[in-house]
Amino acid sequence: MSNYLIRVEHLRKAYGDVVPLKDVSVDINCGDVISIIGPSGTGKSTFIRMLNQMEKVTSGKIFFRDEDITAPDYRLDLLRQKVGMIFQSFNLFPQMTVIENIIAAPMALKGMDKQTAYDKAKALLKRVGLYEKIFAYPDELSGGQQQRIAIVRALIMEPDVLLFDEPTSALDPTMVGEVEAVIKNIAKSGVTMLIVTHSMEFAEKISTRIFYMDEGGIYEEGKPAQIFYNPKREKTRQFIKRLKVLELEINSPHFDFIAYANHIDIFGVKNELAKKLINRLTLMFEEICLTILLPRLGDTVKIKVTIEYSEHDNSAEMFIDYNGEEFNIEDCDDDVALRLIHKNTSQLEYRAEDEGGFLNHLKFTVS
Amino acid sequence: MAMRKILLLSLIVTAIFIAGCSDEHKITSFADLQSARIGVYPGSAYEINAKKFFPNAEYLYLDSLGNFIQSLEAGKIDAFIVGRSHYNALKDRGVKVQCLDQPIEEVSFAFFFQKNLVGEHLSEQMNRFLKEIEKSGELDALKQKWFRADAEQKYFKKSELIGENGTLRLGTSANAVPFVYLERGEVTGYEVELFDKFCVEYGYNYTVAVKNFQGILFDLKTNALDVGVNGTEILDSRKHTLIFSEPHYTDDVVVVVRDYNEDENFFTAIKNKLVDTLVEEDRWQMILEGVGVTILIIVLPTIFSTIFGFVVYLIYRKQYKLFNKVIDALCTLLIGLPTIVILLIFYYVIFGSVDINGIIVVIITFTILSGLNTMLILKGGEKTIPKGQLEAAMALGFSERQAFIKFILPQIAQNFFPHYQNIVLGFMRGTAIVGYVSVQDLTRMADLIRARTFDAFIPLLIVSVIYFILSRLIMKSTGLFLKYINPKNRNREDILKGVKL
User: Fold this and answer.
1) What ipTM was predicted for this assembly?
2) Residue B414 in contact with partner chain A when CB distance is under 8 A
3) Which CATH class is domain B108-254?
4) A120 touches chain B (CB under 8 A)
């Protein structure tokens, strides 16, 4: 007997040509509290929905305590009694009172008598602070209250693992806290949990492991401290720092400058950059690429401009990689341009190194 | 509240009635008729004769004496052309009409039979019988009784018949006074008594079915009837499809116009008509019977179609290919057809060769129609339930089937039943057409009374009021039903019955 609870092997999910999950292999151990983060459309929800087989796998295997749950004859109803799920939209049954929502499954599926079911429900409801609502109907409750009831409805089945599919995304911001508090409380009691979430602070606080999902799989995984403060991989870093990235490439001296300047503008407006910052970014692009580099490089011009904007500190980093001979722009003789560049940038760094197809690499901060 | 509505309703109907009586075009001679609007029975000897004499007149086709009178009173026609016997019957009933002195032609009346060996045999027997009683003077006595004497003597009771030679099926529309008509719910008249005597003589028993004329012709063709009587004139054109007996009566064709001297107080007229419609011959019993039938064909199909609709829907969800294709095809087919056409198809085609009560056909037809409608509403209703509901139940460990039955179906039903008031009200309105398949519902009873009293206003008013009351009852009872099935109206203490809190 190995010590994993769930083992995922070469999991793949495809919807026609779209392949959100290409090849995922991972072990989930008893007591793990795993937050799954990542940009939208990277298969986070699909991944946990496959763990209780609400989604079928395209290929690959999932083992739950040594049993292959992807086997065609596997009793999914029994699996799901052991794997609780909490949905983004709560999904309480509107025609039933709170207490009926909670006791329906244990009574029908586990043969629990009404009194026992009620006593257990009562204890759980008290734990989430909603005992007084047992006779309420879902539409009489706030979103936060509904989600807490949904959690109780899953907990009363005494599941081995709980799957949370963006449990707070549909909530009014004022109600996120109460639901997160309940989840944190359960996490402490040692239940294995997987939580798809957009709230990094929350993920950091409650998790023992973080999965960062991107590029069709678990792109990087680690302890919260590692993922949030020392991510090993580029996309994780960009995501954690909430970087917004714009890349522009110039491959001809006759490139459409107006269109490129417009790209910067749209990028700025979309990400709510200050007007001044947008203007400065455009100015730097113009001075460095148009005024200094383009005349030097002529027909063979190849420039890559990357702008990374960080929501954290409201500043943008600009990377300019270009070809040609080794050349630091500070050596050029255009004093006016240089003065403008120095005035609008900080931490200007230049290095010459053959990397990514470019010899020259320039990096600076605009704020 | 309801009282006030009824009052308002009757005021409106009265206004329509008064508005209907207008526009006069006096007819005093044949010459006036050349440019007049004339009412005739379609395809009758009267029509053929009238067109021969007044080729330039405008013709309106009406199918009962009652309709002639009402059209004449409403000024829709200036005259109508019928037999003198019809006219005399109208005068007997005190209807304000007069006829032009000069008859335009003569017509003969006869029984008619299936055009086959049985029909030939029966018509021969009938001809022999007619000849005998003409010789014995019995026929003249009968004519005297039904065409000339006063109302009290026009009484007939079916003889005790053993039917050693079988039972004949007689079809009639019972709307041709005094040949054949309804009195106290019984079919009576000259032709009926004549036929009764024939049966006594030749050892038959007989049954009577009341249908419209087209229905009689159809049933003769399909061997569902043996003989037709309806004050029917012998027509060459009809001889292609029917066998006529020798004529048993010959009559003048006369032109009937309004009695321009009439002068009756409006309220006295209403009162007389009211008495005529309800009290005379205990006609209120017919209305009551009609109400009973109408309620029956509302309530039973409502219950059956609900069950039928849910069952079909549940099977439909299983996605059996053939079953779903059949149901889809039926839905597409039936939804585009008028209910009356579907009803006629069921009655004459599908159940045409089966001896089956019209009420049963109506119940089956409405059950199927409304059941399919219910199925469609349920199918549409399923789409309004969020996908998450099924997922949530399945994520708890319920199988898809359990999840559907326990959590989804109650929600679909909850969404469906508010349509109920409309469905049942629709039924009620729809039932008024069942007269076409010989079911004597409320509307049909009003028609029959209309044919007898030659007054449309009072029967229609009474029927409207009854339908109005029925619709109120339906609204109230379906409202209570909705309240009852709404889980939110449950007593909260009952939810946790037997549990120590």
Assistant:
1) 0.77
2) yes
3) alpha beta
4) no
Q: Do A77 and B397 touch (CB under 8 A)?
A: yes
How far, in whole angstroms, is CA B368 from its chain's centroid?
21
Neighboring chain B residues of A150 at a CB cutoff of 8 Å:
392
A33 pLDDT band (50/70/90 cuts)? very high
Supply the DSSP string of B279-327, one letter for each residue.
IGGGHHHHHHHHHHHHHHHHHHHHHHHHHHHHHHHHHHHTT-HHHHHHH
**pTM attached to this predicted model:** 0.68
Class of domain B18-81: alpha beta
Average pLDDT over every residue of B370-397: 92
Measured in residues, chain A has a length of: 367
Q: Where are the domains of chain B?
A: 18-81, 108-254, 283-487
B472 token code pair:
């109120």
Of A91, A108, A115, the CB nearest to B499: A115
CATH number corresponding to B283-487: 1.10.3720.10
Instruction: Yes or no: say if A13 and A19 are a contact pair by the CB < 8 Å rule.
Output: yes
User: Matching CATH topology for B18-81 and B108-254?
Assistant: yes
- What domains can be seen in chain A, in order of their start residue? 4-240 (3.40.50.300), 243-366 (3.30.565.10)
List the single best residue of B400, B406, B416, B499 to mutate versus A (max A Cβ within 10 A): B499
Q: Helix crossing, A98-109 with A114-127: angle to 10°? A: 130
Tokens of B297: 């064909």
d(CA A102, CA A111): 14
C-beta atoms of B389 and A93 within 8 A: yes
